[in-house]
């Protein structure tokens, strides 16, 4: 595929129009949601071709818009928590573990908070504006810190436990030294944000810290364990239907138009958006 001519867009929800002869789990008319792939054209179009392994039946109790807000960010969070950090699926075994999420009100931070809480972790997030603090609390955070102030001082003032894990979803360079200061010895830091500058990896040595980059499309790019996308989405749908998770949808633009695509990209690039934004293509 010519990447310069690629249709953009990733996660989406909709109705199955047709299936290939090898597809076993879906039929025309099924309501589904999926993460999308950086190896195919994206979801900013009326019809989209998608591999079965990336798709799951969407939650029965959610709208298409609310369902579309979940897949990419939820899979990113699942991969970070279970594949990278290796937390247990037994919530009881995680009850003494603490996770710090940098930027708890973003799309990834919002769903990661819910998943971590559902699986027994204590969750501390960061935010700064009144509306982002309230949103992060709504997502289930046990404590919300102001990331425009000294995080280390706030940990001390509130007598918060040093995190076993830190999930950075914003400005890895800016928080690099702070994360190293905050994390427990032999702790694990994961980030979804690429470094913009050179950082001293030797700074990780004294605490034996593990640092991992999380990239949801690694499985897609290398063609490994792609069935895990569907496995994680099935768990998301189940937890939504059980009332354990809620959608992170916070804004809907009506109609797949050039103006709406421009507005959506502007909002996301402002880095001030809360939760997820969805474009509704059709009824």
From TrEMBL:
CDD domains in alphabetical order? AL_MDR
Q: Where in the cell is it found?
A: Cytoplasm
**Which keywords, in A-to-Z order, does the entry hold?**
Acetylation, Cytoplasm, Metal-binding, NADP, Oxidoreductase, RNA-binding, Zinc
Show the GO cellular component annotation of the record: cytoplasm
Q: What's a Gene Ontology MF term here?
A: RNA binding
The record ties this protein, via InterPro entries, to: ADH-like_C, ADH-like_N, ADH_Zn_typ-1, ER, GroES-like_sf, NAD(P)-bd_dom_sf, Quin_OxRdtase/zeta-crystal_CS, Zinc-ADH_QOR/CCCR
For the Enoyl reductase (ER) domain, which residue ranges apply?
3-279
**Domain of life according to the entry:** Bacteria
* Family statement drawn from the similarity comment of this UniProt entry: Belongs to the zinc-containing alcohol dehydrogenase family. Quinone oxidoreductase subfamily.
Q: Which NCBIfam families match?
A: adh_fam_1
Question: Which PANTHER family does the record associate with it?
Answer: QUINONE OXIDOREDUCTASE
Describe the protein's quaternary organization and the partners it interacts with.
Homotetramer.
Query: What is the name attached to this protein's record?
Result: Zinc-type alcohol dehydrogenase-like protein
Q: Which organism is it from?
A: Staphylococcus schleiferi
